[in-house]
Write a structure and sequence with these properties.
The chain is an alpha+beta fold and 580 residues long. It contains 13 helices and 27 strands. It is found in: Cell membrane.
Length: 580
């Protein structure tokens, strides 16, 4: 940077990976290949956030002039260690600096991103050094502040003002000595909002099926810097068609890199067992696809050559055409947060007898005296830790199901707090306390029914939407068993899909959770009610706790990565647009 001084006193999740047709309100997405994409590295979307810093009323550590402040930004890792991310320039002779240097950070909804800010007064003898070379222990410490990235982006105007305190007191102690204020402003990168809408078709696809035509779908992938090919977008599956025209897909420029970045487009024949057959592929950039659209011409697909010397790709008669191509700015998940939308957390806990006697250590409901959380507590803490930042009052509806309250019949939706009139508890700890209290006040019973709790959650979401409240609801269901009301649950989900609601299901224990995968709809057809009505969107995410608890991917990341996309899908389905 050269001279480090200045004399100036001073989330996409956006659109991305689904084939949504925003102009068709009746459109229901086909999620048939989600699991296939995830197995190849498909993850949730993110937004690039630019952070700007300013401070006021800093301490004056200089004798003959005012302080010369510099800010340092850190991320706080899970083990509590700090990783330095960026340093601002030094602002000379100012107790109210507005730093010019910005820092761009990737916002991930599904993780808690803890940030720490430290402000230093840089000694005069170091003013001609690059800020990166400064030894912080040689500078005067002016104060520290900490927050999460979610706390910034959910604030009105995406601006959060924090008290600067002494380093050892920055954890939030009530009597920490205040040393001025630090303001953090977050601005979403325009590239997070810039999307390309494509409508693609193919001609003369080959048949891979013996008695019928192929069932084709497209997967669009990009190459990472390491050379790994990562899927970023898919179309729906079209049944029995060799000249398919798919619904529009939306590609985020930020996610791709640029319009000239190479893309791989693969056409597969869908198979219900997940072993999809390649019908052909092609390498094109967005610029190339734009040219195909302008010229009205197609490009031939090919089958990659077999391994070995002098092998060549097999060029096919099949061609890819670009029916429509347009570039536009879309509203993002963060735009709705800035408009005042909140995510309201709800939880429903399985109290059926298959969990085992809560007093015995082998029970899934056993409360360990050492404080080690059981599977139910861990799921509540992990999901709640993320969602609590998006709910201002932190009053969470909490239910139990499959148990017999004292002197009562088996209930499949009872208030966890024991009240007959209201279902809310205060904060994540309120859920934990109500859960432990319920274990002493109900008798575990059965069977396992989801329909009543889903209906209760959907009723709250429906009332909120009718009252024009800016709220989207997230219901966490934690269960150990196979549900016995599958069709009733599907009926409730088809109705709930019309409401501002997503449902996260965590399976605990060793049960067979195949029916949960049906509800998730990632590997099969869209849910259909007994009356023949098809769900307008997929609102369920399911994960067995045992599949991810020992891996690098947490339950929270597995469950929450798709929430922003489901949120945006609802907003577009209902034609809700923020006024910014």
């Amino acid at each position: 940077m050269g001279n480090c001084c200045s004399d100036v006193a001073g989330g996409q999740s956006a659109v991305g990976g689904t084939g949504k047709n925003q102009n068709d309100p009746a459109y229901s997405p086909n999620e048939a290949v989600d699991a296939f994409l995830k197995s190849r590295g498909y993850q949730g979307l993110y937004s690039q956030i630019e952070l700007s810093l300013s401070a006021s009323s800093l301490r004056d550590r200089d004798v003959l002039s005012k302080s010369d402040p510099m800010a340092v930004l850190y991320s706080k890792e899970k083990d509590g260690s700090l990783k330095e991310l960026s340093r601002t320039e030094v602002v000379l002779n100012s107790l109210n600096p507005k730093w010019i240097t910005k820092y761009t950070i990737a916002y991930y909804f599904e993780t808690v991103q803890n940030l720490v800010f430290r402000v230093y007064d840089v000694d005069t003898q170091f003013h001609n050094q690059d800020v990166k070379m400064l030894k912080l222990e040689e500078q005067d410490f002016l104060g520290e502040a900490s927050c999460t990235l979610a706390q910034i982006v959910t604030k009105s105007g995406r601006s959060l003002t924090l008290d600067l305190v002494c380093g050892e007191q920055s954890s939030g102690q009530t009597h920490a000595r205040k040393l001025g204020k630090l303001t953090v402003l977050a601005e979403e990168s325009v590239s997070s909002k810039t999307t390309i809408e494509l409508r693609l078709r193919c001609s003369e696809l080959e048949s891979k099926d013996l008695f019928s035509k192929s069932d084709p779908f497209l997967v669009v992938s990009k190459a990472t810097e390491s050379g790994m090919v990562v899927p970023i977008c898919k179309t729906e599956v079209i049944k029995n068609d060799h000249s398919p025209i798919w619904k529009s897909v939306f590609l985020n420029i930020q996610q791709i890199g640029s319009k000239d970045s190479p893309l791989t487009i693969e056409c597969y024949d869908f198979n219900s067992n997940g072993k999809h057959s390649l019908l052909g592929k092609i390498h094109k950039s967005l610029s190339d696809l734009e040219k195909l659209h302008s010229a009205g011409t197609g490009a031939n697909l090919f089958i990659p050559a077999a391994l070995g010397p002098n092998q060549q790709n097999k060029v096919l008669k099949s061609q890819l055409f670009v029916e429509s191509y347009s570039e536009k700015i879309q509203y993002t998940f963060l735009d709705y947060l800035a408009w005042g939308y909140e995510l309201n957390f709800m939880v429903a806990i399985d109290f059926t007898a298959s969990n085992g006697n809560p007093r015995l250590p082998d029970s899934l409901h056993y409360i360990d005296p050492s404080g080690r959380p059981n599977a139910y507590q861990r799921a509540i803490l992990d999901v709640g830790e993320v969602l609590q930042y998006y709910d201002t009052d932190k009053h969470f509806p909490a239910w139990g199901f499959g148990a017999r309250p004292i002197d009562g019949p088996v209930s499949h939706c009872f208030n966890l707090n024991g009240s007959n009139s209201y279902c809310e508890v205060e904060g994540i700890q309120g859920i934990m306390m109500a859960y432990m209290s319920a274990l002493h006040n109900v008798s575990l019973a059965g069977p396992t029914l989801f329909g009543p709790v889903i209906t209760s959650a959907a009723h709250i979401a429906s009332q909120s939407f009718t009252n024009n409240e800016r709220k989207y609801f997230v219901l966490l269901i934690i269960t150990d068993g196979v549900i016995t009301d599958l069709q009733e649950t599907m009926d409730a989900l088809v109705q709930a899909a019309d409401m501002p609601l997503s449902i996260l299901i965590v399976g605990v224990g060793g049960a067979d959770f195949k029916e949960m995968e049906i509800l998730d709809a990632d590997k099969g057809e869209r849910l259909e009610s007994t009356t023949g009505r098809v769900a307008v969107r997929d609102i369920v995410q399911f994960v067995p706790l045992r599949d991810v608890q020992n891996g690098d991917v947490s339950v929270v990341q597995s469950l929450l990565a798709e929430l922003p996309s489901q949120f945006l899908e609802f907003m577009r389905f209902r034609k809700v647009q923020p006024t910014l």
